[in-house]
């Protein structure tokens, strides 16, 4: 289902499923990330679901600043396996470790389309709200496997409908994978 109008970049709370009809294959990116063949095939055959909770609160450590910032907590699941991401949109690096990607340091921040340098990441975004920094940048660096992943989150028009999307670029050395995830809003 297309994103309802009340779903915005400041209200992503809910359940989102990857729409494989409109999404690109993530397999080239998973290969760069060192994900084994069997795990890749399991991920690619499963419905990928994001259970998202978005809110404003004090920043997470190591940032001890006073102003509140936006948080996005996500449980990402496929085939009964899940990973949890707790993002704080204050552009501060934080450590994360899970069974799939290993040890990663990442940061998330609000970003404007005019601030995006990579042509693939910049492509296709709807200008919504008051303009300015109305997209989300997620940047992750693998400490175990040497890859970097950049994502831009926002809304795009896909087949005539407004949908939540992520443009993703994963690199390691001279290897590069580009793909887009398009999401259906479930609830």
TrEMBL record:
Q: InterPro entries from the xrefs? A: Pericyclase_pydY-like
- Database matches in PANTHER family: LIPOCALIN-LIKE DOMAIN-CONTAINING PROTEIN (PTHR38115:SF1)
Spell out the protein name for this chain: LCCL domain-containing protein
Q: Which organism is it from?
A: Akanthomyces muscarius
